[in-house]
Design brief:
The protein is of the alpha+beta class. The protein has one domain: name from scop, CATH 3.40.1690.10. It contains three helices and two strands. A two-stranded antiparallel ribbon has the order 1-2.
Length: 89
């Protein structure tokens, strides 16, 4: 049977300050729902990527993402930056 429990992960990255994005929250079920609610309440963009969430789930909290995830995370960040640009227009 496939596990269909909701999962979520949150990354933090400040361009010019951080070397790489860090995992700052992760969880399943009710914890995942809370992560999503907090992001929505603060206007933080959300992108659904189940495969990336699975990989991020294996990391320790506050760990920088490993280089092999740079491309996938860069795509997420590009999506978020494009949303922010549209919002400002």
């Amino acid at each position: 049977m496939k596990n269909t429990q909701k999962k979520a992960a949150a990354l933090k990255y400040k361009h010019g300050e951080d070397r790489a994005p860090q995992l700052v929250a992760k969880g399943r079920g009710e914890t995942a729902k809370k992560i999503i609610e907090i992001a929505q309440a603060h206007g933080i963009p959300i992108q659904e990527d189940r495969q990336l969430t699975e990989v991020l789930e294996a990391l320790d909290l506050y760990q920088e993402i490993p280089p092999e995830l740079y491309k996938a995370v860069a795509e997420v960040l590009a999506f978020i930056y494009s949303l922010e640009t549209l919002r400002r227009s």
